[in-house]
Amino acid sequence: MSTVMPNSGRPAHYSIREAAWLLGVEQATISRVVRLGTLRAVRRHGRLVIPASALIRLLSQPGGAP
Asked: pTM for the whole thing?
């Protein structure tokens, strides 16, 4: 599922489903904010994934989750 970086203890990337679950929103909401450019996503092995750093950045902004 997620790619784990050595010695970090947390995934480097989250799937759309995992990001939605972590943020407490629908998968469609994550897809929409990716499409709008509010949340960065990258392709890994043909799948869109959300870098953990992008989720942290989103949560640190005023207003928090989408």
From this structure: 0.75
30 vs 8, which has greater pLDDT? 30
Kindly report the backbone phi and psi dihedral angles of residue 4, in degrees, each rounded to the nearest multiple of 5, phi listed first: -105, 130
Rounded to the nearest integer, the mean pLDDT of the chain is 86
Spatial contact of 16 and 8, defined as CB atoms under 8 Å apart = no
pLDDT at 34 over 90: yes
- Cβ within 8 Å of residue 31, ≥6 positions away: 16
Q: How far apart are CA 6 and CA 37, in angstroms?
A: 29
- Other CB atoms closer than 10 Å to residue 49's CB: what's the count? 22
Return d(Cα 16, Cα 14) in angstroms, integer. 7
